[in-house]
Specification:
This protein is an alpha/beta fold. It has a single domain, classed as Macrophage Migration Inhibitory Factor, CATH 3.30.429. The chain has two helices and six strands, in the order E-H-E-E-H-E-E-E. It has a four-stranded mixed beta sheet, covered by helices on one side. Helix 1 packs antiparallel against helix 2. The chain is globular.
Length: 131
C-alpha cells in the first residue's frame, strides 16, 4: 500500500493532475506489483514561493517540475526501483507530457508497525500482502 505525495506548482488543470496520478499508479502497478485498487495519492499544489528547487539539473527545469515522494511498506530492490523510475518517466512523458528533467522521485520504505490502514489497528500483518 504505497502512499504518494505529488508536489507541483499551482496552475495545472484537474485533467493534468489526474494524468499525473494515473501515470504514477500505472508505473507502480507495472514495476512494483501494486494492485490496481491500491491507490493512495495526495497532490500538493504550491505557490512559487512555497516550492524551491534547482532549475539547472540536466538542463533547465521549468515551472512544470514535479516532486513525487512515495512511502512503501515492502522494500523493493535496486533493480525494481530503477525499472520503476524509467517506467514512470516514460509514462509521464506520454501523459501529461512532462519532460524527463522535470521529474524527481524519492522512494522511502517503512516497517509494518509504521502503518495503520484504519480503526487504529496496526497493519504489520497486511503489509506482506498489500504494499
Amino acid at each position: 500500500m504505497p502512499m504518494s505525495r505529488i508536489s507541483l506548482l499551482k496552475g495545472k488543470s484537474p485533467e493534468y493532475i489526474r494524468a499525473l496520478g494515473d501515470s504514477l499508479q500505472r508505473a507502480m502497478e507495472e514495476s512494483f506489483n501494486v494492485p490496481k485498487n491500491d491507490r493512495f495519492q495526495l497532490v500538493h499544489q504550491h505557490e512559487p514561493y512555497e516550492m524551491m528547487f534547482d532549475r539547472f539539473y540536466e538542463g533547465e527545469r521549468s515551472d512544470d517540475f514535479v516532486l513525487i515522494a512515495i512511502t512503501i511498506g515492502k522494500p523493493r530492490n535496486t533493480e525494481m526501483k530503477q525499472a520503476f523510475y524509467r517506467r514512470l518517466v516514460a509514462l509521464l512523458v506520454e501523459s501529461p507530457g512532462l519532460r524527463p528533467e522535470e521529474v524527481m522521485v524519492v522512494v522511502s520504505s517503512s516497517q509494518g508497525d509504521d502503518w495503520s490502514f484504519g480503526g487504529g489497528r496496526p497493519a504489520a500483518s497486511l503489509l506482506g500482502v498489500r504494499s
